[in-house]
């Protein structure tokens, strides 16, 4: 009498573990839904209500040798260089080897008014420059901190579409 119960229990538990592993692999290596909150990307991503929900693909960050690289203008999700417990959503303004104008906060003791972005780094800026903590504050961001590239906006439904 107890054998069928344990057999059913183990089968259902194994099925749940398999589903959990599949979901983990998809969200870690393929794509996931991400909620973007905060004013730094307005008006592209509106955060006046609960934030926008976007689809973030991870193939670019995991498999860069596939010729799908980052491009200027792409919106990416990355770990914040100054607080690794939070994620940031910013637009790529410059890439390794590019020259950018030195922000006021980084002018200490140097006559040069430009910064050369090191290879393997990105210069990330928010669309709302007046209310954004971005590379003008913390400098170039290493590729290793980038989690994924924003592909689609899925919420609100009235703004559904490719980014």
Write up what this structure looks like.
The chain has 163 residues and is α+β, with helices and mostly antiparallel strands. Strands 1, 2, 3, 4, 7, 8, 9 and 10 form an 8-stranded antiparallel sheet that branches. The chain has a two-stranded antiparallel ribbon with strand order 5-6. The model has no long low-confidence stretch (mean pLDDT 81). The chain contains 3 helices and 10 strands. A hairpin with a 5-residue loop joins strand 9 and strand 10. The chain is elongated and about 80 Å long.
Summary of the model, kept short:
The protein has helices spanning 2-29, 59-62, 135-138, and strands at 31-36, 52-57, 75-79, 87-95, 99-101, 114-116, 121-125, 141-142, 146-155, 161-162. It has 163 residues and is an alpha+beta fold.
Report the structural category: alpha+beta
| Assembly type | single chain
* Beta strand count: 10
| Shape summary | elongated
The radius of gyration computed from the alpha-carbon positions, rounded to a whole number of angstroms, is 20 Å
Keywords:
two-stranded antiparallel sheet; 3 helices; 22% helix; single chain; eight-stranded antiparallel beta sheet; 163 residues; alpha+beta; elongated
How are the elements arranged and paired?
Elements (H helix, E strand, L loop, with lengths): L1 H28 L1 E6 L15 E6 L1 H4 L12 E5 L7 E9 L3 E3 L12 E3 L4 E5 L9 H4 L2 E2 L3 E10 L5 E2 L1
Antiparallel strand pairs: 1-2, 2-9, 3-4, 3-9, 4-7, 5-6, 7-8, 9-10
């Amino acid at each position: 009498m107890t054998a069928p119960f344990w057999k059913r229990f183990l089968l259902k538990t194994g099925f749940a573990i398999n589903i959990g592993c599949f979901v983990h692999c998809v969200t870690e290596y393929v794509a996931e839904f991400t909620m973007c909150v905060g004013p730094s990307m307005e008006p592209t991503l509106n955060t006046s209500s609960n934030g926008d929900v976007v689809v973030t693909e991870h193939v670019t960050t995991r498999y860069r040798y596939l010729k799908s690289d980052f491009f200027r203008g792409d919106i990416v999700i990355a770990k914040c260089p100054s607080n690794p417990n939070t994620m940031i959503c910013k637009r790529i303004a410059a890439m390794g080897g590019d020259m950018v104008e030195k922000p006021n906060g980084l002018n200490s003791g140097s006559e040069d008014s430009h910064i050369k972005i090191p290879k393997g780094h990105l210069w990330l800026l928010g669309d709302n420059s007046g209310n954004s903590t971005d590379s003008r504050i913390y400098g170039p961001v290493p590729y290793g901190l980038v989690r994924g590239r924003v592909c689609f906006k899925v919420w609100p439904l009235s703004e559904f579409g490719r980014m």
